[in-house]
Write a structure and sequence with these properties.
9 helices; mainly alpha
Length: 164
C-alpha cells in the first residue's frame, strides 16, 4: 500500500539538470550572513526598551541590576509575595494607601513622588517629578529623558538609576 502511495508521489516529480542553489530566506539578497542569523536568533523575543539608558549609564552595576529587575517586575514586593503564597503586608509600608508593587514604590507612592521632587529640584529638574497619573516607572523615565538636553542625558539617567 505504501509502495503505491510513493509511486503516485514520485510520478509527478520531474528532475532537472540545473544545479541546486542554497537560498537563505532570512536575508533580502538570499545570502547567509552572521548578522541575519543573529537577528533570527532573537526573532519573537521580548525587547527591553530602556536597555540603552540603563546599561550605558554611569551607575554602579548593582544599581543597574536592581532597576532592571524593578522594570521587569521581579522585585519581592507584596504583589510578588501573593503570587507565591508567602506572608505579605496588606498595603504599602510607606503610605498605607495602595497595594505595594514595585511600580507604586518607584513612582506611585506619595513618598516616592516627594523623593523624586527633592532629588530633581537639586538639579533644576523638578518639573520632571512623577505626577499622580504616573503609575509606570519605565514610561515616566522615558518621557522625562526626552525632556532633558542631550548633553546631560547620560548624567540624568545615572541620577534616575541611583535614585531608584
Amino acid at each position: 500500500m505504501e509502495y503505491l502511495e510513493l509511486l503516485t508521489v514520485l510520478s509527478n516529480l520531474s528532475l532537472s539538470y540545473i544545479e541546486d542553489r542554497h537560498i537563505w530566506r532570512h536575508n533580502n539578497n538570499g545570502l547567509f550572513s552572521s548578522k541575519s542569523a543573529y537577528r533570527l536568533f532573537f526573532y519573537g523575543a521580548v525587547s527591553f526598551e530602556p536597555w540603552h539608558r540603563l546599561w550605558k549609564s554611569w551607575a554602579p552595576p548593582k544599581c543597574q541590576t536592581f532597576l532592571w529587575l524593578a522594570i521587569n517586575d521581579k522585585c519581592w514586593t507584596t504583589d510578588q509575595l501573593i503570587k507565591r503564597g508567602l506572608p505579605h503586608p496588606l498595603r504599602c509600608a510607606l503610605c498605607d494607601q495602595e497595594d505595594e508593587t514595585v511600580q507604586h514604590i518607584l513612582v506611585g507612592c506619595v513618598f516616592a513622588r516627594e523623593f523624586w521632587y527633592r532629588i530633581l529640584s537639586c538639579f533644576g529638574l523638578n518639573r520632571l517629578t512623577p505626577g499622580i497619573n504616573n503609575s509606570n516607572f519605565a514610561q515616566w523615565w522615558r518621557r522625562s529623558c526626552k525632556q532633558v538636553a542631550k548633553a546631560i542625558r547620560k548624567g540624568f539617567n545615572t541620577l534616575i538609576i541611583l535614585g531608584a
